[in-house]
Amino acid sequence: MSLTIRGSVRARGTNPSCNGIFCRMVCLPRNIMGGFSRIMGRRSQYQPPNLQLQHSLPQQPLVVPEEWAFLASFEQQYGITHPFFYACSFMEALKMAEAEHKLMFMYLHSPEHPFTPSFCSGTLCSELVVQFLDANFVCWGAIADRGEGLQMAATLQPASFPFCAMIAPAAGNSIAVLQQMEGPVDPAELVEILQRTMEEQGSAFSSTRGREEEQMRARIKEEERTRARAKEEEKLRADHQLREEQDAAYFAALHIDQEKERLRNARAQKPVEASNQANYEKPRQMPTEKLLGKTRQVSSVREAQYKETATQGKDTPQATQILIRFRSGERREHSFSCTDKILSIYRYIDSLGLPGLENYRLISSFPRRVYGVDQMGMTLKDAGLHPRASLFLELL
Predict the structure, then answer these.
(1) What tens digit of pLDDT does each residue of 161-189 get?
(2) Which of 204, 207, 215, 344 is the residue whose CA sits 20 to 30 A from 271?
(3) Strands 137-143 and 103-109
């Protein structure tokens, strides 16, 4: 693609690449990539055509930072009305353009070239060009015979000045030169060239950038989902470990309680067995039928007494209904007063005269709690059994 502007202006286009972006790929010098071109006045052997270099230097030159050299020179001669040129290195300006999803407008300034004054004052400083460039581009300028301006002139090899180029970031250490203009051009023609290049070439570049950004957003979302899943799995593992530790602590405490209860009952059984040895031998000499008859008679009398007491206080507000479940599956329900003690339940069970109940304890199922020897003196209300509770009889 080539444009001829007033005969002396040459706008060099570029060939289309395989991905549909019209560009010329240019490999940047290593010092541009690394940001080492900071020495003012350094020149390479490349001398742009029609560029007059000043060989006489003042004895005490004014030292200006390289990034500000172009702006200081431009504004000193043409004023402050011009496109917003970033006072930074080429790579910094290129990164700004990439971050803002814009193309880069580069201007290489040759102060001594005969076309430069008319182009700067009549074109670059015109209101039309200033507004268009500020709205659509990141602008960067440099002096063509020093620093990074000299390096870019040696890289792009302009045939004439003024020299402008539309640049886009590319992979690796390369840039895509979408359009370059050499020679003078008026404001309307410059805006037309820039607009046409943006529509024909910048759209393809923008679509590629859009696909890259979409892929980047997809990767970020996938990483966020992966982190969320890992966090949820870690929480589930922590909860499972906590439950296992709680269960282990519960069973350890239960084993300790059972062992203490067993030792306590064993110590209590020894004096009882010694003192009642004679009493156990006498009933054994009695006929079996007579002994069973007396046991049933005493059991029925005691149970009748407890039933009478339960019936009398069953409907009172202080009544506490206790359901007792035996290992055989049998159930007995009895009414107590909330001020009665746990010992009253044991006495009631003993009054039943059921065989095989020499040593036992009472346990509530949920929440699990043992009502053994240490809890005998607690009232039913303090023990949490009022107004109704269910207890399981466990043999020791």
Answers:
(1) 999 999 988 877 788 899 889 999 999 99
(2) 344
(3) parallel
CATH number at residue 368: 3.10.20.90
| Mean pLDDT, the chain, integer | 78
Q: Is residue 272 part of a domain?
A: no
Query: What are 237-282's pLDDT values in tens digits?
Result: 998 998 888 888 888 888 898 888 888 888 787 676 666 665 655 5
Q: Are strands 319-325 and 388-395 parallel, antiparallel or unpaired?
A: parallel
Are the C-beta atoms of residues 45 and 91 closer than 8 Å to each other?
A: no
Give the strand pairing for 174-182 and 163-169: antiparallel
Q: Looking at the structure, do residues 28 and 130 belong to the same domain, yes or no?
A: yes
Question: How is residue 373 annotated by DSSP?
Answer: G
Number of other residues whose CB lies within 10 A of the CB of residue 212: 10
Residue type, 57: L
Cα 334 to chain centroid, rounded: 60
The answer to whether position 151 is within a domain reads yes
Residues 89 and 192 in one domain: yes
Lowest mean pLDDT among 183-197, 206-220, 355-369: 206-220
CB 106 within 8 A of CB 141: yes
- Of 197, 220, 243, the domain-final residue: 220
| Residue 30 amino acid letter | R
Burial of 175 from C-beta contacts in 10 A (0-12 / 13-18 / 19+): buried
Question: Closest Cα partner for 201 from 193, 213, 189, 212?
Answer: 193
- Relative orientation angle of helices 127-136 and 187-197, to the nearest 10 degrees: 20
| Strands 174-182 and 9-12, bridge-based pairing | antiparallel
pLDDT of residue 59: 47
Cα-trace Rg, the chain: 50
| Residue 323 DSSP SS3 | strand
Burial class (CB in 10 A: 0-12, 13-18, 19+), 73: middle
Q: Among residues 201, 220, 239, which one ends one of the domains?
A: 220
pTM for the predicted model, two decimal places: 0.45
Kindly report the length of the chain: 396
Cβ atoms of residues 112 and 52 within 8 Å? yes
Same domain, 307 and 211: no
Q: How many domains is the chain built from? A: 2
